Write the structure tokens for this entry.
Amino acid sequence: MRMILLSGGSGKRLWPLSNESRPKQFLTILRHDERPESMLQRIWRQLSEANLAGEAYFSTSGTQAELIRGQIGADAVVIEEPTRRDTFPAISLAAAYLHDQAGASRDEIVGVMPVDGYAGDEFFEHLRRLPSILEQSGSDIALMGAVPTEPSDKYGYIVPSSSPSPNQPYLRVSSFVEKPDLIRSEALIREGALWNCGVFAFRLGFLLDMLEQKGLSSNYESLSTNYAELPKTSFDIAVVEQTRQLSVLPYRGEWRDLGTWDSLVRERSSELSGPGYISEASHDSHIINELEIPVSIWNVPDIIVVAGPDGVLVTDRQSSTGIKDMVTEIEIGPRFEERFWGKQTVLSHQQATSGLQTVTKRVVISAGRFISYHEHQFRKEVWTIVSGVGSVCIDGIMQTVNPGEVIVVESGTKHYIGAVEGDLEFIESQIGHIVSETDIIRYEFPDSI
């Protein structure tokens, strides 16, 4: 079974640590063997342990391709969306890629799952059973459904049309209910409804045929070229809910969506992450602090404090579900970004009356990585090396840089910088009347690098 791994999201539900440039699946705030781990890395590790990662393909857009390769490895296969749409266009493009570019036959079974879920290892053993469920049931799509542990208005529900049987591991699907209130959730659970995990499988030819039935191309190049014209809708609405032959494999085990700070801190073994202090009277309170200054909670129970370069959040645990609406309303711009080569934080952005802008950033390049060879037309950059040993190339001339050194890169100058010994940290000042992330021209590395 080939796997399509969906990596999307706007990064608003776990603000201030997540943002447009670093959605929640990339936050390294989980733990495995006493080491930090992101949701993406956890899913990939579990897929690898279940021997499902060898034929896995990531579907994403924007800068997430860079983040995926930074966390998983440069060999990760990423199918990039030309623009952010929704799950129906994303899965359709990925399916066409599998057929046209990766050599998958129409009879091959394709599994789909998001990369921001949280499940026990046994979930992935269940996932391996989906191809056999398709065969046994004769269904067009086989889904995974988690047996609810409590009424919840955070999840969609799969309503079966049949009762469990010892001789039949799957159930037929009757209908879907999207995020009902708690009273309706209780009734659905009594009816045997399952949480919709967003995980399913189908034969590749089924989706390719459906695209053509909808008057859409099933050719990868054509879909990619005309991607912006595809319906911006979910796969559930466009395909799953329009399909009659559906089955679901019930799963009894650990599964949840870590979509709020309250749900996420439940998975953490420590109440304090980063510099800070929580008093004894502040029971069930948590601090997640990415800043270098201490954050403290004094005699306030049941709250979560999250501090990062983009801002500071203080929320009651049960009220943390509404953060997305708050972030949308106040239009908070990201100040922190992760890239394939490391990370950067905007420290200040100033503009003189003359229109000259100065953007100051703290940049950390991970050991052994580098920023590409490029130039800027409208700004110059000044780098002050803080720690580590780096390699710099300016217009083809190489040099080694050490802490305390200052490098000036004029506009129109080709340049490159990489970390040679350990992480390389420096303060970067971007100066110009136009300071934009789009002001960049990339080049092949010269032979001297």
Q: What stands out?
A: The chain has three domains: 2-257, 277-328, 341-442. Residues 13 and 324 are 5 Å apart (CA to CA). The chain has a mean pLDDT of 91. The first strand starts at residue 2 and ends at 6.
